[in-house]
Amino acid sequence: MREKTVFVITNNSKFFFRLNKELKKLGIPFTILNLGQRIPNVDSIVLTTLKEVFKINNYNKKKVNFVPYKDEENFDKYFFNFLKIYQCGFGNHSKLLLSIDPGKTIGLIVFLDGHFFYSKTFYNKKELLSNVKNCVKNIEDESNGKLKLTFKIGRGVFPLSLELITEIYNLFGNQEKVIIYLINELKSSKFKFHKLFQNISKHEASAIILALRKGIKVNEENYLKFFELKKTDKEIKEKLKKELNYISFLNNNIELLKTLVFGLLNCKITIYEAFDIINQKRLIKQFPK
C-alpha cells in the first residue's frame, strides 16, 4: 500500500500547524500546494478542510483523493482516519492484529488487514489500553461489527501479560472474534532494528518481532492457568516445543528477519505474506533439493 503522494492545501493555520506536526513526527513526506494551484497528475491524498475542498477544481478525479477536515472535528480521529487510508488503503477493513511487548515501557504495533498501520510506545498500561480501545472503536465503526481482533502479547513479564489479557477480555470479551496468543519473548530485544528506523522505538521493534512469532493460543477459560498448563498439558507442551523451534529458526536467520521487518514497515508486504515467506524458508531448509 502507501504508494500515494500526500499534498496539503489549506489556509487554516491552526489545522496546518497540527497537521505539519503529526506528519513530521511520523516521517510522512508531503508537499504544500496553494489553493488554485494544479494538483500533480499522480495517485495522491489531499489533506484540506471541508470549506476549502470546494474551492479546489484543478485536478484529475481518477488520481486524487480528498480527506477533508471539518471544523470542530476531533483532530486525533481525523488524523487516525488519514493514516489508515495512507497506510492501508480505502474501503472497509475486517482484521486487526495488535502485537504488544509488555514491560515498564510498553511497545505496540498494529496491522490492519495485514498492512502495517502504526506503532507506539506507552509508559503505563492505562495509556496502552485507551489507545487500543480507541483504535478498535474507530475501525469497528466502519466494519459493521465484522472486525476480527487478534492480540499477540509477550509473556516475558507474565503478571503484566495476564493483567492485559484480563483487561482485553473486559473490553472486548463479548465479541466471539477475539483471539489472543501468548508469545515467547526469547531474544526479542536482541535485534536492534529500531536503530535502522527513525520513528521506531526499541520497544516497538520488539513488538514487531513478537508479531512474527506464532505463540500459544489462549482463551478466557485457560489463560490464568497457563504456567500450570505448561507443565501438565501434553498438547500445550508440544506447542511450546514447536514455538521454540520456530523462534530458533528466525533468530538464526537474522538477514531474513531484517528483510521481513523492512518489508513490513515500508508496506511492501503484509504480515500474512511474511508468515508465508517464513514457512517457505523453513520448508526449504527442512527439505533441500
Account of the 3D structure:
This protein has 289 residues and is α/β, with parallel strands linked by helices. The chain folds into 2 domains: 5-81; 93-286, Nucleotidyltransferase, domain 5. It is 44% helix and 19% strand. It has 10 helices and 10 strands. The chain has helices at residues 13-25, 50-53, 75-88, 125-143, 158-172, 202-211, 226-232, 234-251, 254-265, 271-286; strands at 5-8, 31-32, 44-49, 64-69, 95-101, 106-112, 115-122, 148-154, 178-183, 216-218. It has a 6-stranded mixed β-sheet with strand order 7-6-5-8-9-10, with helices on both faces. A 4-stranded parallel β-sheet has the order 2-1-3-4. A hairpin with a 4-residue loop joins β5 and β6 (106-112). α7 packs across α8 (234-251). The longest helix is centred in the middle third of the chain and has 19 residues, at 125-143. It is elongated, with a radius of gyration of 21 Å. The mean pLDDT is 89.
Sum this structure up briefly.
Helix content is 44%, strand content 19%. The chain is α/β, with parallel strands linked by helices and 289 residues long. Strands 7-6-5-8-9-10 form a six-stranded mixed β-sheet, with helices on both faces.
SSE arrangement:
Elements: E1 5-8, H1 13-25, E2 31-32, E3 44-49, H2 50-53, E4 64-69, H3 75-88, E5 95-101, E6 106-112, E7 115-122, H4 125-143, E8 148-154, H5 158-172, E9 178-183, H6 202-211, E10 216-218, H7 226-232, H8 234-251, H9 254-265, H10 271-286
Parallel strand pairs: 1-2, 1-3, 3-4, 5-8, 8-9
Antiparallel strand pairs: 5-6, 6-7, 9-10
Helix pairs in contact: 7-8
